[in-house]
Amino acid sequence: MKAGKDKASVLKDMAERAGVQDISSFVTVLVQSQQFGTSIADALRVCGPEMRDKRIMRAEEAANKLPTKMTLATIMLTVPPLLIILIGPSVYSISQNL
To answer: In angstroms, rounded to a whole number, what is the distance separating the alpha carbons of residues 98 and 2?
Structure first.
C-alpha cells in the first residue's frame, strides 16, 4: 500500500492471488464500503452471516455426497470376503465329494 497503489487495487490484487470466492466477496464488501463511505463494521455484520451460511451449506453438501461415495467402497470391501467365508466351505466340501 505504501508503494504507490491505492487500497482498492491492493485488495483486489490480493483477492486474485488467493483465488478463493469468499475472499473475493470480502474484498468487494470492503472496497464498496470505502467507495460509498459506509461503515465497514455494518458491512461486515451483513457479510459475515452470509459467508458463514455459504460455508455451512458447502459442508452439508459435501457431507451429503459422502454416503454415496462410501457405498461402493463398502460393497467392494465387504461382500467378497463375506462370500468367501459363507460359500468357501461349501465349495471345498463339494470338491472333496467329487
So the answer is: 90
| Cα angle 66, 71, 76; round to 5 | 135
Segment 43-92, tens digit of pLDDT: 889 888 999 999 999 999 999 999 888 888 888 899 999 989 999 899 98
What pLDDT was estimated at residue 53? 93
Amino acid letter at 93?
Answer: S
* Cα torsion angle, 4, 9, 13, 15, sign: positive
> What letter represents residue 34's amino acid?
Q
Pull the grid cell for residue 60. 452439508
Question: DSSP letter at 53?
Answer: H
pTM for the model:
0.59
Inter-helix orientation angle 40-97/21-36, to 10°: 170
Q: Which three cell numbers stand for residue 36?
A: 460509498
